Amino acid sequence: MTEDKSASRQMARGATASLFRPGRTVAHPPMTLDLVKGREIFTAPLTPLRLNPAKVWESLTPVQLSAEKLAGNGLFPLPSNQPAALAIDQLRSKLLHGLAARGWKRIAITSPTHGCGKSFVATNLALSLARRPGSRTALIDLDLRQPHLADLLGIADAHDLGDFLSGAQPLESVFRRFGRTLALGVNRAPVGMAAETLHSPDTAETLAAMVEQLDPEVVLYDMPPALGTDDVLAMTPSLDAVLLVVDGTKTSPDEVRACERLFEGRIPLLGVVLNRTQDRAAQRHIYGKA
């Protein structure tokens, strides 16, 4: 009798071991409980709700930008025959071709040092991209140390972008919409611990959700200068490429090479934009009216 009980216990242990193996789970279909009849009901998985980007864009607060303010800051919301505006439009076309060829959309615009005109290029490029009918472009001020886009665009009621990046404020509470094709994420004040904020998983998740909700063709991030801080490197998981703006009157070749070494193996350098150059032949290339 004792041997029979021992054998039974061994068989039971053997059966248990064969049914439940470490590291493996038994798959069951989704299940709910019918509280009325006391039985289990197996249902198909629920399909995740898809946001309608058009409705998200409509939820953004429209903003009116002063043409006088924009012109005073060297910005071109409308087509222009000025050489700087034509150069920006050429950059727009080159950028779109490059992004389409690679399937990219998230671009950081930075410079080697302060004062090279990166915000000027980023804003004018965003305005140029947004002039295309039916397009969607997003411009976000991620120069958290010295935010400049709100002043450049003349937006007096900007919010704290840090609250958005942390997830404390939703997209529609912070972003503005210029026309129907340009979403603006401008910032009211510097954000403490800028690099740490950009390193945060909350920031990466927030920016990924923003791209999904707005579904823009191009996202431009105005970033701090690349040399001297790790802000741009902190953003690389949320970027497809970098556009480097250099000052033709002061940026040295060594500074450009330092940026190239910094980006190498970490983030693709899409191109270098030479700002503040004198092109005496520019007027000869003007054709027709803008």
Automatic annotation (TrEMBL):
The keyword rRNA-binding does not apply. Residues 1-23 are annotated as: Disordered. One of its GO terms (molecular function) is ATP binding. Transmembrane segments: none annotated. Keywords: ATP-binding, Kinase, Nucleotide-binding, Transferase. InterPro entries: Bact_polysacc_biosynth/exp, P-loop_NTPase, Wzc-like_C, YlxH/NBP35. The keyword Transferase applies. PANTHER family: CAPSULAR EXOPOLYSACCHARIDE FAMILY (PTHR32309:SF31), TYROSINE-PROTEIN KINASE (PTHR32309). This is CpsD/CapB family tyrosine-protein kinase.
